Amino acid sequence: xxxxxxxxxxxxxxxxxxxxxxxxxxxxxxxxxxxxxxxxxxxxxxxxxxxxxxxxxxxxxxxxxxxxxxxxxxxxxxxxxxxxxxxxxxxxxxxxxxxxxxxxxxxxxxxxxxxxxxxxxxxxxxxxxxxxxxxxxxxxxxxxxxxxxxxxxxxxxxxxxxxxxxxxxxxxxxxxxxxxxxxxxxxxxxxxxxxxxxxxxxxxxxxxxxxxxxxxxxxxxxxxxxxxxxxxxxxxxxxxxxxxxxxxxxxxxxxxxxxxxxxxxxxxxxxxxxxxxxxxxxxxxxxxxxxxxxxxxxxxxxxxxxxxxxxxxxxxxxxxxxxxxxxxxxxxxxxxxxxxxxx
Length: 343
What we know:
There is one protein chain. By secondary structure, the protein is of the alpha/beta class. The strands form three sheets. It has a six-stranded parallel beta sheet with strand order 13-12-11-14-15-16, sandwiched between helices. A five-stranded antiparallel beta sheet has the order 3-2-1-5-4. A hairpin with an 8-residue loop joins strand 6 and strand 7. Helix 1 crosses helix 4 and helix 5 runs parallel beside helix 11. It starts with 15 loop residues before the first helix and ends with a helix. The relative contact order is 0.09.
């Protein structure tokens, strides 16, 4: 493959599906045909699981990873064929045979990946275009993809308020269920965190969040903390007090709320304002005793929030300092997301 010289390769700043879609937008705007690799199923030990994506172009892998690197050349070979033919292809990657460790990929992982490589021509982009549209709308997406040899890769994408159909070549088609057998992938909305308050750990935490592809919304009226949050790449910073922030943001969907002002007064105001928030992951910086005191003072000891509040926030790493706290916060939430994804 010859590298494209008009779009930098794999330099888009974010990770996760969000980073992949950033790369896709840049290459699509330059008129490049792309290939979206979607993991349909796995067995045994694998680097990724069902629903993972990677993006390929003329220069090779652009974003995402389906292995530690050893399988990508084989997947690139299939992607090259898709770019050449304009039609989807399927790859079954098997590292379970004992000889694979020496004569094959060298992974020794003993796993299988079933990967569908989907053509994504500009401007529509098929399944990739639908992922971009759903992400822009902060919506989840359901993909139904045909595995029938005569219609491989044809599919239907559906999100809140719209449905798009595409053919094996990734171009828009008349709506209708794709020929069976078919695989269905459900892609959740972009992960969005609300940080109510900021502190010394916030810049490092935002760096982790960006690398993992999370969207971050920070609320802090104090310039000493809102400024660094902006410079560290928060997607939104609201420099307002707790009541005003709740009025502006309470109608939005959040996957997590982190109470992190390091101030008893501000944490209490935020806890009171968000006491009825329908958010599964809510966490408070500081020890459990501090959380109990704050909830008692706010009259929230018997509230739904008190029953769900995680304090201290984050994974118990046993290390200290701003960067270590940031890592613990990111690890705790990532563990929650992993538990939520399990069937």
